[in-house]
């Protein structure tokens, strides 16, 4: 039969285990939230993620959604930003996707060396960095152009 002090120590360890589990969950939630790209206006040349668009004609836009610089590729995140901006541009009417393309900007893994002792080096490789981009043309529903006219307009007038 356990004595009083042993029971108190065991109970104390269970309390510490519960706190550690809570902290692990909390850190996981913070990390997942910290990895999401902010929905914000950006430009083509900035390394921050977000969206930008160019009006091609009345109700016709080229929209781009891109991620922040990451060590992994996330087209789904870039697509989420693209779709949200397209929906905003066309408000209640909705939109028709004319064309959509995925691309990425990749940097090679970063290489450094650590000096172990005089004359001895150990190479260290870090992850490469990537920006995922989803770009395409959208046509707001209810506009002057049909989807076929929009495609022809893009082919003849947009580079």
Automatic annotation (TrEMBL):
It comes from the Bacteria. This is Lipoprotein. The lineage of its organism: Bacteria, Pseudomonadati, Pseudomonadota, Gammaproteobacteria, Cellvibrionales.
């Amino acid at each position: 039969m356990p004595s009083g002090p042993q029971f108190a120590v065991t109970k104390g360890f269970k309390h510490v285990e519960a706190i550690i589990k809570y902290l692990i969950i909390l850190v996981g939630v913070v990390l997942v939230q910290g990895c999401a790209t902010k929905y914000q206006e950006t430009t083509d040349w900035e390394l921050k993620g977000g969206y930008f668009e160019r009006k091609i004609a009345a109700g016709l836009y080229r929209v781009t959604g891109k991620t922040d610089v990451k060590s992994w590729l996330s087209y789904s995140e870039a697509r989420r930003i693209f779709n949200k901006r397209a929906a905003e541009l066309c408000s209640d009417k909705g939109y028709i996707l004319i064309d959509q393309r995925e691309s990425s900007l990749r940097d090679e893994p970063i290489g450094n060396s650590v000096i172990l002792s005089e004359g001895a080096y150990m190479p260290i490789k870090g992850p490469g960095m990537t920006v995922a981009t989803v770009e395409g043309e959208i046509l707001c529903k209810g506009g002057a152009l049909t989807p076929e006219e929009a495609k022809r307009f893009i082919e003849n007038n947009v580079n």
